[in-house]
């Protein structure tokens, strides 16, 4: 079967060569009136294997087995100057420096975008002749032609296993663990919509005042226990049902934990208010005395010993201090780390509080955009439920120093008053270039897989599928093969050194882990704009993220990057993924754009690395 596939490949190459040779030999005016309407003509050749048997009308079109695109624009003879013969013209074309001397940065046969269609039409209409371009073999590569075109790293993926380092490795502090735990929770799939949770448990939705919500929350554990025991008897035969049930219970108890912490932090505030109130109304007694009286009253109400309440209060006071610094979101999304941090108070100092304070707005951006219902829980403690940062998580640019986040658009207004950016999950094919084709299509080399309709991963040799039950390829499980991509734990932030925005990692990314897929407009021929070049054996294409894309659009260059771009084929479609080379929480995520990006570019690299290759004099 492999030889069958190779034969088809050879056949399509043969067809391509034959057409190219024919055009080259004839060098004639091909009377194709259709060319007149095209700005950038391409000749697409496709091969289908079809049954030409007797039942022709009922026949369905078979699968495409090969696809080739010949760029006619590149093969077109430019309009000759009146005094030149065809031969002389060819000589002139081979001198790009002469072209440049006219001040145009564009090659002779590619349209100058500033001329729009007119300039192009003039050139094309002037000849009508087609010939094979010998550009690649005759021209010296002009690097400035590639400026701002990022290249995919051709080295293999960073290996997953971390090489043992002889460097001194600092263990994360309790505060680090707390902060990372919060970021993990915010970016996890936890559902903090109390209404949805309560409805799932058939408890009346929370429409009443805060006390109702507390009552509902308190009944959750009881309800969950009853349901759990029933479930154990009745639905154990169904693993998936049990999964669903277990998820509901976990989410409900997670909501209860969040409620518990915010109520305890608020109780601490009310306790202090009560002491103050009594001191003011009966100033003849000392504050210590009043505090003792309030404390004893609470012991009685809780039914706890003094020691018990004192221990609990110490932790609850910690919750309140974390809340005062990092806001309610920190409490709602805190994992178990917060208990440890508040109980042992290791590193619980002014510096820790300053760090938490700087995180406050950033946490709110993440919580508001990823869990728009989270603020409903705050009704319990009488806080506002109004979202401060609605919309997409990357619609907000956050600041390291805790300043107010800015809407993304606002950060570009100075340079581009028409700035617009659409956040997309999957790439969009530029139909004006590719029609209904996807240039990322990469046919399987494995003939058996190809005929049986199975997609085999070229890396791990396992079957790929979007159906979790069928998929066995776990090369990049956070991106491909899962039911839904989770939000990546990173934020768009304002860099300190003049690179405008950048991407900051909120948690660590181990070496070999995918950070994201570069998605954008799949196009071709973009020049002098930031673009990622890529190609399959069948086509070259570009990913342009200027107007649409995802967070990978904000990744800056570094001469010592901590991420790398690599191609990966998923379901016969090539993807460009950003793979970690080992990234610490809090670090800027960077990529090496490559020499071609910087070639001829009047820009200085601001990566600040001692090994920087593109720093210009004076910077
Ligand atoms: C793909 S964008 C990255 C996001 C960009 N910083 C922004 O705010 O939109 C690439 C642009 O970022 C800037 N940039 C990225 N890395 C840089 C570096 N090391 N030095 C200087 N500018 C850089 C350049 O302006 C470049 O054109």
Automatic annotation (TrEMBL):
Query: Which Pfam family is an annotated match for this chain, by its short name?
Result: SET
Q: Which organism is it from?
A: Decorospora gaudefroyi
* SET domain ranges (all copies): 488-594
Q: Where is this region: Disordered?
A: 78-131
Question: Residue ranges under compositional bias (Basic and acidic residues)?
Answer: 87-101
Protein's name in the database: SET domain-containing protein
Task: Please name the InterPro entries in this protein's record.
Answer: Class_V-like_SAM-MTase, SET_dom, SET_dom_sf
Q: Which domain of life is it from?
A: Eukaryota
